[in-house]
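Quick entry between incubations.
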Amino acid sequence: RKEVEQDPGPFNVPEGATVAFNCTYSNSASQSFFWYRQDCRKEPKLLMSVYSSGNEDGRFTAQLNRASQYISLLIRDSKLSDSATYLCVVNGEGDYKLSFGAGTTVTVRA
Amino acid sequence: EPEVTQTPSHQVTQMGQEVILRCVPISNHLYFYWYRQILGQKVEFLVSFYNNEISEKSEIFDDQFSVERPDGSNFTLKIRSTKLEDSAMYFCASTPRGTYGYTFGSGTRLTVV
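Done. Structure below.
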């Protein structure tokens, strides 16, 4: 079983729409959870950390369900600039290494 | 905003040649990492480095790979004898501690021909 699994998409949405997607992780001992954003052929950039109680950062809302081992990301009022690949990331079995999902591609159209 | 700097941005090398990828982590960070991403695939952990030694490595990081921090600022990844399947984007990263505060460099695209 893959450590982190994501629906690859693509999610193709109009500007202003809401889009949501999940990822699941296999290691129940994982402690840290993140959503990163990656633009084509660029480095991953941290979008937000994900906390147990759920958290919001502007138009982005992340939820964590430890019992079911899934993490979600919701983007409200999508902008053209939100078009990117969103990477679900958890800390791995070692202390500090990160395990990445393969990414969910979101395309926001005008 | 502090940055992780990687050079070169693109390296083309012949199969069997040695390559050295260079990184300058953020100055007050203590943990350093190399990750790679083969085109169209996920980002994969290669190695972590702390206190002048490898703290963890993946099964990808075999005897062909080595890392060094030759001075107070640079952090290098060496591939001794490159193979075609080493073609990938290599990202350096650093953190002050733990998994929070990760900053990735912009990557070196390695093409082995």
